[in-house]
Amino acid sequence: MLSLGIETSCDETAASVVQDGRIVLSSVIASSLRLHKKYQGIIPEIAFRAHIESISLVTRRALEAAGKKIKDVGLICVTKGPGLIGSLLPGISFAKGLSYSLKKPLIGVDHLQAHLYASFLTKRASGQCRRKEPPSLPFIGLVVSGGHTSLFLVDKNFTFRPIGATVDDAAGEAFDKVAKILNLGYPGGPIIERVARKGSPEGMRLSCSGPEDLNFSFSGIKTAVLYKTGDKRQKTGYRDIAASFQKAVVEALLKKSFMACERNKINTLAVGGGVSANRYLRERFEYEAGSRQGFEVYFPPLDLSLDNGAMIAGLGYRLFKKGIASDYYLSPAS
Ligand code: KG4
Ligand code: ZN
pLDDT of 47-78, one tens digit each? Predict the structure, then answer.
């Protein structure tokens, strides 16, 4: 069965055609990021307008790239939240319209759960995917995005149980704010990663690993960077600050994720969300997993770490097979 996935939770208008919940036939993304750059953050009204302008075209392109017609699609999947209400609405309305006119089922998909499902996806040209086998169930899922940092226990029935979350800023948000403090631009994650490659992670003493529970906190480290960079006696260069910050965040994510695995006696970890595109993070998680016998860590194909329609189409299909579907009362959920 072919499912169409529509994602409009933030600034990306994305659509994708996925076969049987696993093989990505196309993934098309239009971003309004350049319109937000000068504000150093996403402006909901601008995102809303951009979604309305591009959603039809993006969907048409996704069908063309997959070599399919809209009538070939058996299921319409759409992000129901969390996200910006003004961004979610155009996607949900468009998906409802398609579902109604085509007489195809509609399913609203949770954005965070979909980020974890991205590790189950594989590209049409299988050579692009590092690993053919998807994660085995149950697994621990870590979502690290611009708005969320959450741990889930995903059980054998594909039910997501929240077991930890950030109490303040999200990891991606911290990357964005630290990049702003260092005057590096927006979005901060990819820039910090690039700059950190030339810096020393020992340059500045930073930590955000916090107490021995499964929650995260990243607002303290952002404030620490703000004070330390404002201190005239401070001689650490911005590259070293970026590297030290990145290391501290990744160590905190590592510690809590492996703690969640140990506490639940689970040997499989899947990481998703924009921050999971970070190569330093991937290397550290893979190194730690490699040092534990029988432990596997999974990441999405690199371009499916960030917001995309394929993860929505994939999880939508999986949930639909479980008998879940939405009606036309579907509305944005926070
Ligand atoms: O999942 P995502 O595309 O959107 C949300 O659902 O929020 O994540 C976007 C976040 C941004 O905060 C961005 O700075 C961060 O992911 N990000 C990264 C990297 N690429 C994107 N953070 C660290 N390293 C990266 N390479
Ligand atoms: Zn996301």
Answer: 999 999 999 999 999 999 999 999 999 999 99
What's the domain count of the chain?
2
pTM, whole model, 2 decimals? 0.95
Mean pLDDT (whole number) for 87-95: 97
Q: What DSSP designation does 216 have?
A: B
Residue 330 pLDDT exceeds 90: yes
Q: How far apart are CA 245 and CA 237, in angstroms?
A: 12
Q: Is the CB of 308 under 6 A from ligand 1?
A: no
**Ligand 1 and 82: CB distance under 6 A:** no
Can you give the residue range of the structural domain that contains 243?
A: 139-299
Which atom from ligand 1 is nearest to the alpha carbon of 186?
A: 14
Radius of gyration of the chain from its Cα atoms, rounded to whole angstroms: 20
Q: Cβ(275) to ligand 1 under 6 A?
A: yes
Best residue among 31, 33, 175, 194 to mutate for probing ligand 1, ranked by most atoms within 8 Å of CB: 175
Query: Is 126 part of a structural domain of the chain?
Result: no
Instruction: Give the angle subtended at the CA of 163 by the CAs of 161 and 165, to the nearest 5°.
Output: 120
- Are 206 and 221 in contact by the 8 Å Cβ rule? The answer is yes
Is the same domain home to 175 and 211? yes
Predicted pLDDT of residue 256: 98
Instruction: Write down the pLDDT at residue 165.
Output: 98
Cβ–ligand 1 distance for 172 under 6 Å, the answer: yes
Tell me if 175 CB under 6 Å of ligand 1: yes
On whether both 161 and 218 belong to a single domain, the answer is yes
Q: How many whole angstroms separate alpha carbon 49 and alpha carbon 37?
A: 16
Report which ligand 1 atom has the smallest distance to the Cα of 12: 3
In a 3-state reduction of DSSP, which class is residue 272? strand
Our mutation pick for probing the ligand 1 site, out of 36, 306, 307, counting the most ligand atoms within 8 A of Cβ, is 306
